[in-house]
Structures are given as structure tokens and as C-alpha cells.
Amino acid sequence: MALDNDTGKLKWYPVYTNPRAEKKAYITLTNKGIEAYLPLQKRLKQWSDRKKWVEEPLIKSYIFVRIADNALAEVLMTKGISRFIYFSGRITAMPDKQVEELKLLMASSYELEVTEEDLQTGEKIKIKAGPLKGLTGEMIAYRSQKQLLLRLESLGCSIIVNVAASFVNRF
User: Fold this and answer.
1) What is the DSSP string of 130-169?
2) What are the tens digits of pLDDT across the range 59-75?
3) Partner residues linked to 86 by β-bridges
4) What are the backbone angles phi and psi of residue 82, rounded to the nearest 5°?
5) Residue 4: pLDDT band by 50, 70, 90 thresholds?
6) Domain limits at 58?
7) Is residue 2 domain-resident?
């Protein structure tokens, strides 16, 4: 997508899709030349007669688009897109760092879990070793394990990933 001459800046926006329309909306957006990101996770699904590995969106009904302010209407006119996410009456933009951290998590071999529970905040931590080195988040106690919580506040959900305690530093 071309840079907006008025603001000169592209921003990441979370976009809410129609149910189970994430993949089709993603393809349509990219065919329009709009930079989009759809984090997909492989899961083993079981039917009555078979099992099959399928790619499902990590966060159901969400796609992330990187656009200039003047392209908001073009995104909304895309089939499968429902609406932008609002916070305090304004369309929510996400920091580039948050999307980059999400991409880093998706590229790792860690098993991820998305939860909409309002988890209690804890100590701020930074991962010092392993494939997620440099990632920051909050340490929480969840299911009696030490895990890293990457809170995506603008989406109202959290992503939990198992990390060895020896791999984190307090800051």
C-alpha cells in the first residue's frame, strides 16, 4: 500500500473479521496490495473418521493490517472484514513492536495458547536466551507453571507461552 502523503506513516491496526472468514479476508487484502498479517497455528483436528493437521488463526476473527490513515475505508470495503477495533471511541492502532513480537512468537517452536481471561499482572520480564531472546512481557502463575504472558491490551486478549525460568531476567 502506498504511503499516505498527509501522515507519511503506516500503522498496524487490528481488524475484526466475520466468523471463520480470516483466511479469505487476508487473501483479498493482500490481492488489493494491503500489507496484512494473519498469525496461523497448526492444530491436530479430530473428526469421527480421521485426524488431520489444519492451520487455524491464532486469534480467531482478527487480522492485522498495516496501512495509512487514508486506507481505512478500503479495508472496510473488503469482503469478510467486519470492523476496526475501537478503544475510547477511536480506532486502535498497535505499536509496530507488538506485531513484531507476535511474529517472533509465531516463528518459534513454542506451543502458544490464547486466552481472553483477565490475568493478573506480575513482574515485567525479558527473555535472555533461546529463540525468543529479547521478548518482553509479564511473568504470571498459570496452571501451576511459570510462563511468559505477552499481553496485547488493544485486543483484550493475552498470549501465553512456556519459557524456562532460567531464560528470563527481571527488569
Assistant:
1) STTTT-EEEEEEETTEEEEEEEETTTTEEEEEE--GGGEE
2) 999 999 999 999 999 99
3) 91
4) -95, -55
5) very low
6) 11-94
7) no
- Identify the top-confidence range among 2-11, 56-65, 114-123: 56-65
- Asked if 134 and 153 sit in the same domain, the reply is yes
Burial class (CB in 10 A: 0-12, 13-18, 19+), 107: exposed
pTM for the model: 0.76
- Secondary structure class of 13 (helix, strand, coil): strand
CATH number assigned to the domain comprising residue 86: 3.30.70.940
Chosen domain end from 94, 126, 142? 94
Q: Rounded to a whole number, what is the largest CA-CA distance in the chain?
A: 56
**Polymer length in residues for the chain:** 171
